[in-house]
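Pair request: fold both.
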Amino acid sequence: MPTGTPPTPPRTDTSRAQPARVYDWLLGGKDNHPVDEAVGRKLPPQAKDAARQNRAFMHRAAAWLADQGVDQFLDIGAGIPTEPNLHQIVQRVVPTARIVYVDNDPIVLRHAEALLVSSPEGATEYVQADVRDPGGILRQARGVLDFSRPVALSLVALLHFLPDDQDPRGIVRELVDALAPGSHLVLSHAASDLHADLARQVTEEYARAGIRLGFRTRDEVARFFDGLDLVEPGLVTAPEWFRDEPAPPAEDSGIHAGVGRVPAGGAA
């Protein structure tokens, strides 16, 4: 059941494209506006594949973590709810699981009541906050999650919206430093080194809409996992990351993805 009531949402700006709404359009959702669709239509067809691959990776990683007994999740950059959402995946396995969703887009807040439909035994909460304020996110999340126990931190398809001048590594470090041993970082990130021409095209189209991107190489993405133990199969493309279920169909991808575990002594 929900642990709180979302505040009254601010007015949604429909004059400019927003990443969560463009992502919703790429996934075939209906909670977007013409300005978002206009951006999506200018992107290469592979952008829809990337959105789908990100989503499927999140499903596989969340289900595997729940199977390992992880019962607390902090999903930053949650986006517009698309079923099945993270809490539905997790609570099928662990009905008592507690999930905190975080996003800074007002339209996501507008859909928070639907997102907050938890299993009766568990809890979900929505926090409107910006990843660039990790301290504020942690303060609010502590009202629902017990950070003395393992938490799965999900940063799926988020960090490439933070260019280097916004200190994404410092942000991730502050979030990971708050996690107890046995916690996990679930991360996917658009690649600059797998399909350079496509990456450049996507970056330019988003820039025309006023959205800055910072795609990164595999080595640059690997630095987000510094101090963590990468879970097999390591840092791979999104369709290549799976654990106990049958392998997903092989397909080309421009997304790096991985899961890292906080070791017994904490992140180095």
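--- second member of the pair ---
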Amino acid sequence: MKVVSFLPAATKMIYDMGLQEYLYGVTFECPKEAADLPKIVRCILEGKNYTSIEIDKIFSASKAQGKSLYWVDDELLESIAPDIVFTQDICEVCNIDTVCTETAVMKLSKTPILVPLSPNNLQDVFECAITIAKAMGKEEVALNYLASLQKKTDYILDELRANKAPLKRIMLMEWIEPIYNCGHWIPFQIAAAGGVDMLSNPAGDSIVTQWDKIVKYNPQVLVIAPCGFDVTRSIEEMPLLTSKKGWDELEAVINNQVYIADFDMFTQPSIGTLVDGIEALACMFHPEIFTANKHIASKFVNYSKIEVLNR
């Protein structure tokens, strides 16, 4: 059996479940575990260091022209002749969508099974792991994998209840300029970590959110995790926020509760990385209860510590 993944999250789950022996091709932005596999999907943004504003303009122009940011190496895909292709239809900015994938697959001599993964909420992402493993004839592997992750989220919930932790008023940003709120599964992650994001769009697309609305909402904790950006990359963009009128008056800023986090814990819907995100959020929201292990601690930073180092 030959499997090709057009979705980094699917690739990550395949590795997490130990099914990588069946994986023959991935995208340019799949996780480091797949570094040696052929890259079938490429992107016009690949290798470029565009700003948030520039990326937004490029996408908007591409969408207006009916063009995709992604393209498929048809010859490489033909040479692999996959039995299964995993794809998605959630965000045409983050990854190649099902329509583009179908176009590429139609050209193949051998027609593979196309398996779209389009989760809307956290439970959907759990079920995606089962969909992946079941398509590969390994459903029991997914069930064992998910059971181990469920233990982590159950522990967090039990600790929040035991400590009667107050629900924190949160905002998580998926993009900095323009500012996007969070959507799909992320509000559910926030809830699982002991917070509520009233500016979010649960089970739906993230949308542009005006700054004055954020100022009025006045989050207790602000988490900044732009899609595709790690902590270091996001820090470069922070002046776009800190220069805004009212920044210094936000409760999160006053109380040093602004955090910058790696995107892959939130906007990459691999259930393992999303559970990492829940653990990280719990540490941000309730540091008096939770202490981050070495891995989780490497995935986010308190912005006030960066400011002190830069003085």
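Observation on the second member. The first strand starts at residue 3 and ends at 5.
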